[in-house]
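Possible regression after last week's pipeline update?

I re-ran a chain I had predicted before the update to compare outputs. Posting the input and the new output here so someone can diff against the archived version. Not blocking, just want to make sure nothing changed silently.
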Amino acid sequence: MAEIYHNFLEPTKTVYSMWVIIAVIALFAFICTRKIREVPGPLQNLAEMAVSGLVGFYSGIMGEKKARQYFPILATFFIFIVISNYSGLLPGAGHLYTVPTSVLAVTAGLSLVSFMTIQTSGIRHHGIPGYLKTFTKPVAVLLPIMIVEQFVRPVSMALRLYGNIYGEELATETLFGLFPLVLPIVMNILSLLFCFIQAMVFSMLLGMFLNEATEDEE
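New output (post-update):
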């Protein structure tokens, strides 16, 4: 029993990969914010452009006020997912280390955190009775369907991210075995855009659901 318990708690390659990604993100954030200048250097300028772009993107989904309010959680999801996705383009991906977003347990964990964020935000904004009341609109008979939908959404988000990243990795590896010279390079170039889009889609859906959960009654 002790051996089973030890094996259960022992970190896997996926966990190690996530630790490295988190460390890289933390180091980059520390370097960019250590000495903030009025005339930014290259890294600070890159960070400010990224923040400005993301705030503008989320403002188009949920308004500037909510975008700034929920920016920390939205940006955290986006940055972690996009870095995880891009890690699959490095040598040794799938062998020396695991691409976190190609593991269903990781995407399910991200979706679970998203689900809890949405529900707690809705309850905090409306109160429990008021939040439950939002599920009865436009008609009360839809209450069971609306509740089920809240649980279907995170499952869909987890499967979408996992399926797309795992499928892209599998396709690239297969093509590399069949055409080892040119086609894999083309796939990797396309993956740069594909991985970015998947991170944007996940955080965009979270922003949409947060906006819906905290929407004021007219």
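Follow-up from reviewer: compared with the archived run. The two ends are 58 Å apart (CA to CA). Marking as no regression found.
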